[in-house]
Amino acid sequence: MTVNSEIYRILWYFAVYSVLGWCVEVVYCTVKSGKVVNRGFLNGPVCPVYGFGMLAICKVVDLLPMESMGEVQFVLLFLAGMVLASLAELIAGWSLFHLFHARWWDYSDRPFNIGGYVCLQMSLLWGTGTIIMIDFIHPITQRLTVDMLPMQTGWVVLAVFYLVFSADLMVTVSIMVGLNKRLARLDQLRTSMRTVSDSMSGMLGESALRTQQKMDENKVQAALARAELRDLAEGTRREIQDRAQERRKEREEYLKNLEERLHRQLTSGKMFGPRRLLRAFPESKHMRYGEIWKQLSDEINGERDSTNEHDAS
């Protein structure tokens, strides 16, 4: 690979990932705050810290034999992304604060932070995002820019981008050091430059808010559906219990009526005379009617107890 083509790749990757990083920042901050936020140090839709971070990660990927490492690739990508992106964030945050006395992000309220410029939570997110970027986004970026776009056309696009980027950077720095107080033209130029990023942040932010609102609505609908299912299950369980209770009462009533009917028949002597009783219960020829009745009653009560035990189980 020639030096010219290497510079061409670097310029493209910095431009693409600076713009993509700005888009991610706008969406994240809009969802977090609930209102459209135009993020970034510059006026245009660019966050250079993302461009520098991805360039460093791409350089590490080029130096390592990633194809032959198998599963170790994910660990190396994660660690490289976590360290390099956090380092770029630390340098950028420290420089902006000490040069212009302003913070564009502050992690002071999060655990394991360094000066509020970086924190463990964001470093872990950078590592995870690196795996996604290198395995999925970066191949698409390379195919759509370096591979597909003719180099002559690509150089023209890059020239326009970096011309606008350089002008934006100079205007922003001038305003930060207070030159806009003496040159009103800088404020007008800054406003015109910010028109594009304001428009893009508005579209991205509103889309993110609509998506977030839709997700919240889906969560509410899912919660209502779960509540309805619980109510339905509870109602079904109670209905089954009520029916089981009714069946137990019906069996108890049947056994009670049977017991009373047998008692009447035994004590009346009309249906079960001595001979029939002796044939049915030969072992009770020396028993009285009352004793025979007691034996039958005990058997009926035993059947009722076994039925209740079965229903309870």
Give the helices and strands, then pairings.
Elements: H1 3-33, H2 48-63, H3 72-100, E1 113-114, E2 118-119, H4 120-147, H5 151-176, H6 184-268, H7 274-280, H8 289-312
Antiparallel strand pairs: 1-2
Tell me about this structure.
The protein contains 8 helices and 2 strands, in the order αααββααααα. The protein has 313 residues and is mainly alpha-helical. A hairpin with a 3-residue loop joins β1 and β2 (118-119). The model has no long low-confidence stretch (mean pLDDT 79).
DSSP strand content: under 5%
**Overall strand count:** 2
Major sheet strand order: 1-2
Please write the string of helix (H) and strand (E) elements.
HHHEEHHHHH
* Class per helix and strand makeup: mainly alpha
Overall helicity:
over 70%
Q: Total helix count?
A: 8
**Mean of residue pLDDT?**
79
Unreliable residue runs: none
| Separation, N- and C-terminal Cα atoms | 79 Å
Overall morphology: elongated
Radius of gyration: 41 Å
The major beta sheet can be summarized as: 2 strands, antiparallel
